[in-house]
Amino acid sequence: MIRNHRVIAAVVATGAIAAMLAGFGVIKSLVAAVACWLILRIGVLMLGGLARPVPAPPPTGEMRRVKLTYRCEICGTEVRMTAAPEQDPEPPRHCQEDMVMVTPVDDL
Which residues pair with 70 in a beta bridge? Predict the structure, then answer.
């Protein structure tokens, strides 16, 4: 693990040596070095998780997962769409009219 993050290990070792030379005890310096290593390691892992690229969209014509709910304004029939060929599909028709999307904006 240390081999993969030599910079973190070097920063922690330098800090621990500087703390010992500054007059702090060996135990306090080692505890601080371990805490510093944990904080830096977790930070690097979190940043690495954010750096993952967004996956490419599926090819044209392939079904995508959606979670949209539509309602017919005339008769009140509701339809939930779970798969569509595109992310923002055309609304379905019912009673010869386009249905109205009732999915909350937060769920889109």
Answer: 79, 101
